[in-house]
# Entry
Amino acid sequence: MKRKYALDANRLFLLSIVLSQLLVPAVILLGVQDIMLLQFLVEFFMFLPCLIYLFMQKRPLKESIGINPLTWKQWLLLIPLAVCVDKIAEFVNVVSQLFTTNSVGSYMVELILRYPMPLAFFVIAVTPMICEEFIYRGVIYQGYRRSNILVAVVLSAFLFGIMHMNLNQFSYAVVLGVLFCLINEAAGSILPSLMMHLYINGRSVVLLYMVVNYLTGLHNEYVAAEAVGNKELMAGLIEQAQGIPIHEEDWLSAYMSMGAEEVPESILSTVPWLVVSVIVIVLIIRYFLKITGRTEHFRRIFTRKTKEYQPETERERISVLSPSLVIGCLICIAMMIYEML
# Structure
């Protein structure tokens, strides 16, 4: 009897959501309050079903999650690729703030202020790179891929987005999920999305760490200058902050929250980067397809003959829908609504 890999993927998604939502609160009830540890445990509990599944399958990682080597030219092109994908995510993130707030920025600032950067980098960048990519571009995507590649791209991206359980992250995570899958298909490996995921999260950590610490220094200098009445230094520090209200007590909250009137301006400022990024990504994908010989394969992803094009041994003539998939999605939607309220 042929194994139903798409159903395995659905069950894995449900288990990862249920475990992370049940075990983390249980750990909190046991007295664990360290937010960095809790953030790590969220990823670990979500990854645990995937880890057990991979161990029980005893299949090579090439088959189970799509790990294949890259050429040195592909490795070099991952740098501009990651930058461009990040710019597209930034654009979608800003647009989403027309309808919702950025719920991640303040949380990341809290982590950065309380913990050293190497630890924050490991928990926020390295851990999600491994856990989330192995789940959503690995086992889940490969499971759906045996049925229909285009469905696998869209559905795995949707699940990756909804897993974050807030509208802001959902918006750009879905876009990232689609781009990651298409780039992986062009390269014939999961390695590009692993590296891009690491770059996007890691850049946010490093940049935010540098900016927050710099502005905190200016704020502390301002407070000291205000205490001795040095108005000239105070004015100079405010000018140096370039509009950041370091003279206010809750300056950090004001800095992290973008006012509704600022969103349109921010959108316009990211449009040129969006256009350039899309062009660069298309060119790099075309190059990947050329050197991997997957041009025809990639083209057929977007045709109705996608399933017929796949080898007989890889086809699953079943629907990817199942009760476990629906239940997992409903849990995420319920948590997303709760977070909004």
